[in-house]
């Protein structure tokens, strides 16, 4: 049996692998006459008479160019068919490699001639002196004894003095270019249509193809005698001519753009006002400082694209400014922290204004010092930070200074609103007396932690406890003393628990702890340790030292004692009830479900 593709011996094993991919691909084929569909591996194919893409195509082009020399028609045909073949080759290769999941570069290349055979293009013989380097040194001579293009010319009885297999040259180089990832081109140097024994092609990188052909012919003088007239094709020569036209258009566009820019400059003031209006519309929606930073960066660059801008805010608990937003070209050695005395930004305070005045949020027109514009962010008499605009030698107009001052006032008000929002949120999720989370927020957190534990297949422990005889304690020492006990327990839990643990005041004298990722043993040990350590608290109410605190604790584990929030809380509550029933001042573990 004659093999459809011949390759050098060292490539035979890879060819076998490639052959399996191609056979598998073409095994799934069918013809549905009711729909007019030829289907191969879930891809629709067209059956085209080969002469239509060869001699017949040439005849049509020659008719179009009847007023010119026949050689022009032939060159036009060759270029169009080469471009078409090269493009189809690249796209076929890409689709085939992806569909058959081929990753090996050599397998990608060798599947090409096999695909070639199965789709009726030609038999392929890759010569032994091929160099399959996957770079600019790639080189392969290959022979096509029965090219469909040459057959079409011979069958039509047409003669030519130059090679005419442009589709095969384009398709083969397109397939290999896609496989390797570098530009390649194929040139036919002998052709059956002009009387040669077979169609012989040289494939190489466009920058190397001419030298590769000369080297090959020098080593093969018998072939060199038969080579009379060939042309090295270029992929999309028409595209190159179009690029030249595009360069001219580009220059015209630049002239046009210059006119547009001049027109745009006249509209700048209205555009800046529009940008600031959009900024002021979005600013009240911000609920965090980070959102304000992001919005200021976005709109600051739009408002002052030609300047360097920075936003500074006071670090919590510190008398220094931290740079949180910046744009534009930074200067060498520029600071990201400003301390008192470094810049006027910290010490600069606006002139006093009536407390009821909305201008409390704005600074009077700021002044430029050393090429920098400093605008403090004021909330009443309190400085929240500063904006700096570095304008260098440029002169800001009066309108631009007013714009910056307005911007600073907007940001200061937004920071103040975020602070109020955070305070309200903090009040909503914390118990005001102990500073611990309240019950509602803890149930939200516990629900999320249970979902995470379920997803990660982890355990989770909860400890529920209350103060023994707390009512009697209140009756004896008074409610103020009871509050002192609760406050002491809040501080105690913050000190004794891990950073990952969550604690809350569950109600009255009852507390709940979530131990994330803890097992039963560590949760029980922590509960017992808390029971013992709480005895060491000696809170005072006024000058009076209050009596020792004892607590009863119930422990429940996810998932052994409950898989839902309600079932887990009920299990812990029952364990706590049992601890109190058995004499208080102890730890009890919930019973398994």
Overview of this protein structure:
Helix 1 crosses helix 4, helix 2 crosses helix 3 (70-99) and helix 10 packs antiparallel against helix 11 (289-303). The protein is α+β, with helices and mostly antiparallel strands and 593 residues long. The protein folds into three domains: 5-235, Muramoyl-pentapeptide Carboxypeptidase, domain 2 (2-Layer Sandwich), CATH 3.30.1380; 280-420, Beta-Lactamase, CATH 3.30.450; 439-589, Alpha-Beta Plaits. The radius of gyration is 42 Å and the shape is elongated. Strand 9 (308-314) and strand 10 form a beta hairpin. The protein is built from 18 helices and 21 strands. It has a six-stranded antiparallel beta sheet with strand order 11-10-9-14-13-12. The protein has a five-stranded mixed beta sheet with strand order 1-5-6-8-7, with helices on both faces. A five-stranded mixed beta sheet has the order 16-17-15-20-21, sandwiched between helices. It starts with a strand and ends with a strand. Helix content is 47%, strand content 18%.
Structural key phrases:
593 residues; alpha+beta; Muramoyl-pentapeptide Carboxypeptidase, domain 2; Beta-Lactamase; Alpha-Beta Plaits; 3 domains; 6-stranded antiparallel β-sheet; 5-stranded mixed β-sheet
CATH homology-level superfamily of the largest domain: Trafficking protein particle complex subunit 3
How is the largest sheet built, in terms of strand order?
11-10-9-14-13-12
The biggest sheet amounts to: 6 strands, antiparallel
Query: How many separate domains?
Result: 3
């Amino acid at each position: 049996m004659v093999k459809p593709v011949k390759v050098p011996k060292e490539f035979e094993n890879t060819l076998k692998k490639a052959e399996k991919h191609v056979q598998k691909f073409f095994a799934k084929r069918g013809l549905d006459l009711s729909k007019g569909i030829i289907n191969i591996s879930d891809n629709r194919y067209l059956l085209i008479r080969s002469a239509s893409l060869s001699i017949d195509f040439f005849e049509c082009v020659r008719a179009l160019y009847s007023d010119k020399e026949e050689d022009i028609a032939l060159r036009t045909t060759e270029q169009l068919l080469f471009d078409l073949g090269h493009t189809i080759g690249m796209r076929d290769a890409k689709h085939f490699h992806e569909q058959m999941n081929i990753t090996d570069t050599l397998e990608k290349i060798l599947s090409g001639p096999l695909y070639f055979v199965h789709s009726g293009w030609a038999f392929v013989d890759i010569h032994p002196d091929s160099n399959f380097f996957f770079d600019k040194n790639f080189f392969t001579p290959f022979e096509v004894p029965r090219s469909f293009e040459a057959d079409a010319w011979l069958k039509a009885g047409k003669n030519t003095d130059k090679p005419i297999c442009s589709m095969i040259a384009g398709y083969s180089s397109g397939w290999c270019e896609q496989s390797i990832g570098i530009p390649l081109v194929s040139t036919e140097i002998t052709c059956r249509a002009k009387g040669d024994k077979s169609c012989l092609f040289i494939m190489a990188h466009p920058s190397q193809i001419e030298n590769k052909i000369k080297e090959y012919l020098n080593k093969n003088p018998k072939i060199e005698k038969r080579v009379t007239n060939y042309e090295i094709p270029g992929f999309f020569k028409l595209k190159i001519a179009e690029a030249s036209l595009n360069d001219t258009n580009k220059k015209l566009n630049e002239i046009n753009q210059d006119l547009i820019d001049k027109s745009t400059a006249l509209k700048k003031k209205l555009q800046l006002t529009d940008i600031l209006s959009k900024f002021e519309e979005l600013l009240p929606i911000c609920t965090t400082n980070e959102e304000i930073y992001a919005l200021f960066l976005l709109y600051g660059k739009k408002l002052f694209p030609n300047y360097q801008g920075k936003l500074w805010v006071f670090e919590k608990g510190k008398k220094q400014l931290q740079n949180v937003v910046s744009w534009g070209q930074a200067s060498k050695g520029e600071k990201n922290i400003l301390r008192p005395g470094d810049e006027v930004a910290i010490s600069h305070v606006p002139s006093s204004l009536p407390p009821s005045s909305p201008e409390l949020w704005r600074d009077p027109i700021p002044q430029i010092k050393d090429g920098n514009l400093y605008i403090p962010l004021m909330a009443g008499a309190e400085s929240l930070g500063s904006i700096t605009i570095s304008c260098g030698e440029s002169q800001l107009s009066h309108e631009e200074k007013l714009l910056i001052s307005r911007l600073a006032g907007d940001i200061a008000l937004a920071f103040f609103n975020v602070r109020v929002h955070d305070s309200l949120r903090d009040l909503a999720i914390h118990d005001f007396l102990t500073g611990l989370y309240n019950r509602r927020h803890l149930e939200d957190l516990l629900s999320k932690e249970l979902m995470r534990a379920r997803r990660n297949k982890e355990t989770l422990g909860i400890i529920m406890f209350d103060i023994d005889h707390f009512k009697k304690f209140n009756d004896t020492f008074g409610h103020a003393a009871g509050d002192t006990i609760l406050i002491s327990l809040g501080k105690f839990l913050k000190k004794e628990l891990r950073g990952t643990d969550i604690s809350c005041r569950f109600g009255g004298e009852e507390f709940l702890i979530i131990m994330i990722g803890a097992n039963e043993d560590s949760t029980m040990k922590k509960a017992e340790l808390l029971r013992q350590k709480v005895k060491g608290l000696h809170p005072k109410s006024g000058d009076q030292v209050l009596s020792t605190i004892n607590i009863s604790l119930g422990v429940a584990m996810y998932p052994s004692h409950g898989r839902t929030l309600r079932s887990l809380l009920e299990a812990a509550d029952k364990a706590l009830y049992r601890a109190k029933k058995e004499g208080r001042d102890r730890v009890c573990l919930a019973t398994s479900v």
